[in-house]
Amino acid sequence: MPKKILIVEDNEKNRVLIRDVLKYYGYEVIEAVNGEEGVKAAKEEMPDLIRCRLWTALPRCRRLRAILLQKA
C-alpha cells in the first residue's frame, strides 16, 4: 500500500508540480488549497505525511500535527 501524502498549497502550479513528482514516485496524493481544507482532508484521510508552507499556515499546521499524532 503506497504512503499517503497531503499537500496543502494555494499556488496551483506548485501544487500540481509537487503532486506529479510524488505520484511519479508511487505516493498516493491528497490535495488541499488552504489550511481549512487541509485540516478537513487530514481528519478524513489520515495521511502519513503533510506538506504545507509553515510560515503562512502555522496555526493550521499545529492542528494538522495533532491529527497526525492521533494516528501514531
Highlighted features:
globular, 72 residues, 3-stranded parallel sheet, Rossmann fold, alpha/beta
For the largest beta-sheet, the strand count, sense and barrel status come to: 3 strands, parallel
Q: What would CATH call the homologous superfamily?
A: Response regulator
* DSSP E strands, number: 3
Query: What is the level-2 CATH architecture name?
Result: 3-Layer(aba) Sandwich
H/E series, N to C? EHEHEH
Which regions are unreliable across 5 or more consecutive residues at pLDDT < 50? none
Just give the CATH class.
Answer: Alpha Beta
Helix content: 55-70%
Report how far apart the termini are. 17 Å
Radius of gyration: 11 Å
Amount of beta strand: 15-25%
Task: Walk me through this protein's architecture.
The structure is a single chain. With 72 residues, this protein is an alpha/beta fold. The chain has a single domain (4-71), classed as Response regulator (Rossmann fold, 3-Layer(aba) Sandwich). It contains 3 helices and 3 strands. The protein has helices at residues 12-24, 35-45, 54-71; strands at residues 4-8, 28-32, 49-52. A 3-stranded parallel sheet has the order 2-1-3, with helices on both faces. Strand 1, helix 1 and strand 2 form a beta-alpha-beta unit. It starts with a strand and ends with a helix. The model has no long low-confidence stretch (mean pLDDT 85).
